[in-house]
Amino acid sequence: MACRNFEDIMDDPSVQPITDDLVLPFQIEASRLRGRMVKLGPALDEILTRHAYPEPVARFLAETMTLAMLLSSMLKYDGIFTLQTKGDGPVRLMVADITSVGDIRAYAQFDEEALAKAADDVAIAPAPALLGKGHIAFTVDQGPNTERYQGIVELYGKTLADCVQHYFRQSEQIDTGLTVSVDQETLPDGSKGAWRAGGIMIQRLPQDATEKVLGSGDEDAWRRAMVLLSSTTGDELLDPDLAARDLLFRLFHEDGVRVWQPKALRFGCRCSRERVSDMLSSLPRDEVQSLKIDDGRVEVVCQFCSTAYHFDDADLDRVYGTAK
């Protein structure tokens, strides 16, 4: 991706800014700190509305997706980046993944009865209340002929963003600043509309032996960046009319902001009838028979997109190679 000065892009009429469903890389020039900003709109809403998630689960899954976008955009990979949480709380599992071309999908597994009992604690400390004790994992899968990278750390913190920062402190030893906001739009009649999310992540990468030793000026620049980052409001992150580059300029213009071309994001599930057929063929046919619904067909529903695939007996004969 080409690197552009903020002013260059602002003055170039040929550049039409993407305002939603994007990752925008940037650098704070005065301190050389690297960052990413994510804005999610229609793609996020499509993913969440395919499921009947209770509000706390939908909100937490939206935060998971936002963090997955921020984290994956810091890496160079050709494949799939996955962010997964697994715990013993009401939300047992959350998975969000993004391909290197920008296709995103996500789903959550939860216990509705346990979720109702934890309702009073969610506002105080959502991560412990919803996830309980467990771990958060980051996985990069670049195909069958490559070695998968995975980082795992225990869930620690009041919010999911706190858990991610704990991971970087414990496992990567990289200073990381994060702010994430998730909410539903409020319609004129007071009802809830589409889901939106936004987030900014700034990192101070370790210096190698050829670079100067970290000095007081670098520490001051880091603290200043964190103060400016903390001044960002949820309304700013979620405003569909406030472009990502405009918010970055509002925050960091005094120190200079250099931005790269944004990367577009979109909902994209990788399920297909062929993949489901391959999965069924790996199971004993007697076991597959138990998946039949009232009309006598086997039904398999994708956890990510809720698409239902149906197979009658003739379809199963073809799956198992017994068709006449």
Automatic annotation (TrEMBL):
SUPFAM superfamilies: Hsp33 domain, HSP33 redox switch-like. The keyword Chaperone applies. The keyword ATP-binding does not apply. It comes from the Bacteria. GO terms for cellular component: cytoplasm. GO terms for molecular function: protein folding chaperone; unfolded protein binding. One of its GO terms (biological process) is protein refolding. InterPro entries: Heat_shock_Hsp33, Heat_shock_Hsp33_C, Heat_shock_Hsp33_N, Hsp33_helix_hairpin_bin_dom_sf. Keywords: Chaperone, Cytoplasm, Disulfide bond, Plasmid, Redox-active center, Stress response, Zinc. Transmembrane segments: none annotated. NCBIfam families: PRK01402.1. This is Heat shock protein HSP33.
